[in-house]
Specification:
The protein is an alpha/beta fold. The chain is 29% helix and 24% strand. It has eight helices and nine strands.
Length: 278
C-alpha cells in the first residue's frame, strides 16, 4: 500500500493543476449511469489514460474519464465509469480514484452501480440505497503493508454507509415519488451473471441485490475516513424459479432509464446541503 503514496500524489497533482477548486464530494457513476456527469456544470473532463497511474476502463457503457466541476453548486470530482476486478485490474489500482478524491479534499463518496435484484419485492428500474454489504469478491484493496498516513490497519466497518445520508436520500425519494428501497448489496467478482443456485445462495445470505463493484471503493473510502452514500439501480430481477437470459445491453438500457430518478436524488442531497458533515 505504501507504493501507492507517490501514485496518489502524482494523480492528485495532475487534477489539481487543471481544477484548483478542492472537491467536496467524489462521485462514481456505474453501468448505464454515466450521463449524470453531463449535468455537471463548467465541466473539465480528463480521460483516465491521461491521468497518471489511471488505467483504461474496458467495461461496456463506461466512458472512463474524470469529470471535475459543479453539481448543484457543489464542487465535485466524478468518475464517469470505473475499473473492475473482472477487467483484470488489482483492486489497489481499481480504487486509486477514491484515494485521489480524498487527497484532493473530498470527504464524501457517492457511488452508484447497476445490480441484479435478489429481493422479490424489487422491480427492474427501481433504486436501492445501500445500507450494508457482503464482500464475496475473494479480495480486498487493503491487503498488504498498511500506510498509516492513508488510514488505520483495521478500519471499523460497523456502519460503512452513512445513516444520516441514507435517511435523507429516502426522504427525497418519498417527496419526489421515486420508488427507493434500502438493503444489502452483495459484491461478486464476475464477469458472468449468476446461476439459479447462486442466486438462491446470495438471497439466503441476506442479499437484496448483487453486483460486481462498489465494495472495494467503499472499503478504501472508509479506510481513508470518508463518509459513504451508495445506490444500486435494479437492472434486472433475478428470481431463480423464473430466471430468463439477460444481456448486458438490456442491463445498460434499464439502468439508463433510471438515471433521471438517481440524478434527482443525488442533486437533492447536494442542493439541500445534506452532504456536509453535521
Amino acid at each position: 500500500m505504501r507504493t501507492l503514496l507517490p501514485q496518489i500524489q502524482e494523480a492528485a497533482d495532475y487534477v489539481r493543476a487543471r481544477f484548483p477548486t478542492p472537491p467536496e464530494v467524489g462521485i462514481i457513476l456505474g453501468t448505464g449511469l454515466g450521463s449524470l456527469a453531463e449535468r455537471i456544470e463548467r465541466p473539465l473532463a480528463m480521460p483516465f489514460e491521461e491521468v497518471p497511474h489511471f488505467l483504461r476502463s474496458t467495461a461496456e457503457s463506461h466512458c472512463g474519464q474524470l469529470v471535475a466541476g459543479w453539481l448543484a453548486d457543489v464542487p465535485v470530482l466524478a468518475m464517469a465509469g470505473r475499473l473492475h476486478a473482472y477487467e483484470g485490474y488489482p483492486l489497489k489500482t481499481a480504487t486509486l480514484g477514491v484515494r485521489v478524491m480524498k487527497a484532493l479534499g473530498a470527504d464524501l463518496l457517492i457511488a452508484s452501480n447497476a445490480a441484479g435484484g435478489l429481493n422479490p419485492r424489487f422491480a427492474a428500474g427501481e433504486i436501492m440505497v445501500i445500507d450494508d454489504h457482503i464482500n464475496l469478491m475473494r479480495d480486498n484493496p487493503l491487503i498488504g503493508v498498511n500506510a498509516d498516513v492513508l488510514g488505520p490497519r483495521f478500519p471499523d466497518m460497523s456502519q460503512p454507509y452513512d445513516e444520516r445520508l441514507i435517511q435523507a436520500a429516502l426522504a427525497i425519494a418519498r417527496r419526489r415519488e421515486i420508488v427507493c428501497h434500502r438493503g444489502v448489496y452483495v459484491a461478486v467478482t464476475g464477469p458472468n451473471l449468476e446461476t439459479r443456485a447462486e442466486y438462491r445462495m446470495l438471497r439466503a445470505l441476506g442479499g437484496d441485490v448483487a453486483g460486481m463493484s462498489t465494495v472495494p471503493e467503499v472499503l478504501v473510502a472508509i479506510h481513508g475516513g470518508m463518509r459513504v452514500l451508495a445506490f444500486s439501480v435494479v437492472s434486472n430481477v433475478c428470481l431463480p424459479d423464473d430466471l430468463r437470459p439477460m444481456t448486458i445491453d438490456e442491463i445498460v438500457a434499464t439502468s439508463a432509464a433510471a438515471e433521471a430518478n438517481l440524478r434527482e436524488m443525488v442533486t437533492g442531497i447536494l442542493g439541500e446541503g445534506r452532504h456536509r458533515a453535521s
